[in-house]
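Figure-free illustration: sequence to structure, shown twice.
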Amino acid sequence: MNREALDTVERSMVRLRRGMSRQRLGKAAIREHNLPVDVQVLHVVDVVDEGPDRPGEEMSVGLVAARLGVDASRGSRIVAEAVKCGYIRRVASQEDGRRIHLELTDAGLAVVDATRRTRQEHFAKAMRDWTDEERAEFARLLARFVHTYEG
């Protein structure tokens, strides 16, 4: 493997992670769209919007907690806040009525839409000098990298 390329990818990913961990885009979405939502709740809404990992799986508090990298009790508190704010609702499972799963409300969908628009505007700005072909190739390679990395 080309050591220089690997070093560049590693350093770039660290910078990207640092930028994302500062929650820059989430805060920008909240500010730009005047969203009455906390950044942690915004993360929960994003995770629920992402959907389950496998067909037939339902979004649960445990899955939200795992994706956010928090323990179950912290995940439960953040989900409860998102429910209280009206962005997520708890619904009885179709598979087992004793279990619940999470789904977005109309207000949650509006938050998702606003947040996605903000992120896409920021990404478009970062790639404004790229050709359509470069953007398409970057999208293809990034999706491939993420799929392989998560796999």
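We now fold a second protein in the same way, so the two outputs can be compared directly.
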Amino acid sequence: MTRAPRRTHHAAPPREDVLAAAMATVAERGLDGLTMAGLGREVGMSSGHLLYYFRTKDELLLQTLEWSERRLGAERGALLARPGTARERLDAYIDLYLPAGHRDPHWTLWLEVWGRSQNADDDARSRQAAIEGVWHRDLVALLAEGVSRGEFRPVDADRFATRLRALLDGFSIHVTVGIPGTGREQVVAQAAEFLDETLTPDAGGSLSGAISITPAS
């Protein structure tokens, strides 16, 4: 008896391959170029199959961001573990934090996810907070180390980290969208100047870098 020919099943590509392809599309064509149909063609899947795995485009974007953050997290862990002063590692942290330039794909994706988070569910908000949390905790630990070694002024590490990240976020948005006068080089210089003014022992100025305003009498 002749056996019936065996049907060949094409396995779906690993999820990481799909997320890598999504990030590559953002880098090459921007967010407008990222569609379920287009991504499906890139990885050999139908848009329906992609929706089965990711449910919505919002979920695809968030998972792609999480994938990108895992890669950055590995880089961040390596730079924080290397020898050197706390300030050297802080400069490296900031260099990694800031976008590479106008239309940086990671930051482009971040801005899109932030924009969509207004209508996100609790799970998505929790996952976004987790991404923010690891950057914050690593920065707090680095600042606390610098303070304990006498490299930095005695600041509240948690409060200072919150303010520094807010400054970096604002600069990063300017770099990503391409506001004139806020290119990456200018922003790196501004961040270094801020750290010199606020963290260098016995430096002048406010610990927080904020301007003190005296109420009118």
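Summary for the second example: Residues 1-9, 204-217 have pLDDT under 50 and may be disordered.
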